[in-house]
Amino acid sequence: MAPEVKREILSSCTLEEFLSEKLKRYIKEMTRLERSNLYDTVIGEVEKALIKIVVNATQGNQLKAAKALGISRNTLREKMRQYRLGDYKSKTMIQRTKKVKNR
What is the pLDDT of residue 9? Predict the structure, then answer.
């Protein structure tokens, strides 16, 4: 699909409509399973994707990402750890850790 067409499709629907369409097939399969824990699964996957996108958009700047998400930096770091999203420690913290180890 051409980039122009994708932009037109995304701008012509709400976030709710977009998510509804994307989740229909997934949910159909999940509801066939007993005890699928559908709510926690979907919320977790959406949250993980959102955090990943925002952290990448802020070039790894956790403070900016946390502000954009409306959560504290500590909460962001905890969620990054929970979802195993790369390096949840800030660059400054990593540099300090390396200095301490090299002493």
Answer: 54
